[in-house]
Write a structure and sequence with these properties.
two-stranded antiparallel ribbon, Alpha-2,8-sialyltransferase 8E, glycoprotein, transmembrane, golgi apparatus, glycosyltransferase
């Protein structure tokens, strides 16, 4: 290998982080250990054009894996690593078709949030999972809803959806995330100075799981300022909660609005529309994601695909090792595992890798330049 060749072994995207060209003095190619006959790169001078013959073949290597169980995890990782020599670009035709499907099934620009327009005063609103439960929309709660959705279709040019995966640690993706026109974050993740190099600070929407409020902030029944102080890290970001997921979520979610009003905060509080969540779950079930509940990250990615022209994912990885086979923590800030069997995270990520390969969205799993 030429002396100018440098590997970024920590990134999980070795191919994408080479500097200098690849020259083999003995004329041999760089070959795959598992499939020496097909995946190889002679005289690498990348990144290659996404639609080049070489990259079309590498993308097909991902797409031909129809279900996750078809290949070993290490084989999937290798195929994904190999694809990193290709410069990603959006396939407008594929993206438009996928977004039109989401428009018919889910329609985030009209139904992502519960609004006065889609949920009039007096509505008997059905919960997402407690289907026998009904919440009567009274005047007090109705006034908390925005008049209509604050966002419209393809409003933002480039969006970043930031998951909390350990794949973000040492990624140095903070600046790239902050350059996005709109940034989604999940479940009050830490964005203090300790993490900003990797995860950035810009936040336009941050979701809050009511279980976090229950466990960390005692349902806001006692001291409320600690919760308010945590939200200030996100400056003027809107706060999004699943108030109508089940009956337990409603009171504590509505309490968030009271807290922010008490402290005269300018942050908006929105609530997922339960029918939107139902429709998103049904759609992804049809795509093979079988879980008790789809993750908040998947819900935000689904919404972003309708609200944004171009969608980039950071911190989405569902495996204990990065694509290079190096063990990583579950989150970038801790190693607390989720409840087993609740989400189908590997299946969700598998769908994202397919969408990346089709040019619908981009999945970042390595270091950012």
């Amino acid at each position: 290998l030429a002396s100018g060749l440098q590997f970024s072994w920590q990134s999980g995207e070795e191919m994408a982080n080479w500097t200098g060209s690849l020259n083999f003095t003995d004329g041999r190619a760089l070959k795959s250990d598992t499939d020496p006959g097909t995946r190889y790169f002679e005289f690498y001078e990348g990144p290659f054009d996404y639609n080049s013959t070489k990259c079309l073949g590498l993308r097909q290597n991902i797409l031909e894996v129809k279900v996750l169980s078809m290949v070993k995890q290490t084989e999937l990782f290798e195929r994904w690593r190999n694809l990193q020599i290709c410069k990603w670009e959006m396939n407008v035709t594929e993206a438009k078709f996928f977004k039109s499907t989401l428009s018919r099934c889910c329609n985030a620009p009209a139904f992502l949030f519960t609004t006065q327009k889609n949920t009039p005063l007096g509505t008997k609103l059905k919960y997402e999972v407690d289907t026998s439960g009904i919440f009567h929309i009274n005047q007090e709660v109705f006034r908390m809803f925005p008049k209509e959705m604050p966002y419209y279709r393809s409003q933002f040019k480039k969006c970043a959806v930031v998951g909390n995966g350990g794949i973000l640690k040492n990624s140095r993706c903070g600046q790239e995330i902050d350059r996005a026109d709109f940034v989604f974050r999940c479940n009050l993740p830490p964005i203090s100075q300790k993490y900003t190099v990797d995860v950035g600070v810009k936040t336009d929407i941050v979701t809050v799981n009511p279980s976090i409020i229950t466990e960390r902030f005692h349902k806001l029944e006692k001291w409320r300022k600690p919760f308010y102080d945590v939200l200030q890290a996100y400056e003027n970001a809107s706060v999004l909660l699943p108030a109508f997921y089940n009956t337990r979520n409603t009171d504590v979610s509505i309490r968030v609005k009271y807290v922010l009003d008490d402290f005269e905060s300018q942050q908006a509080v929105y609530y997922f529309h339960p029918q939107y969540l139902i429709n998103v779950s049904r759609y992804w079930l049809s795509q093979g994601v079988r879980a008790k509940r789809v993750s908040t990250g998947l819900i935000l990615v689904t919404a972003a695909l309708e609200l944004c022209e171009e969608v980039h994912l950071f911190g989405f990885w569902a495996f204990p090792m990065n694509p290079s086979g190096i063990f990583i923590t579950h989150h970038y800030y801790d190693n607390v595992k989720p409840r087993p069997g609740f989400h189908a995270m590997p299946s969700e990520i598998f769908n994202f890798l397919h969408m990346h390969s089709k040019g619908i969205l981009r999945v970042h799993t390595g270091t950012c330049s």
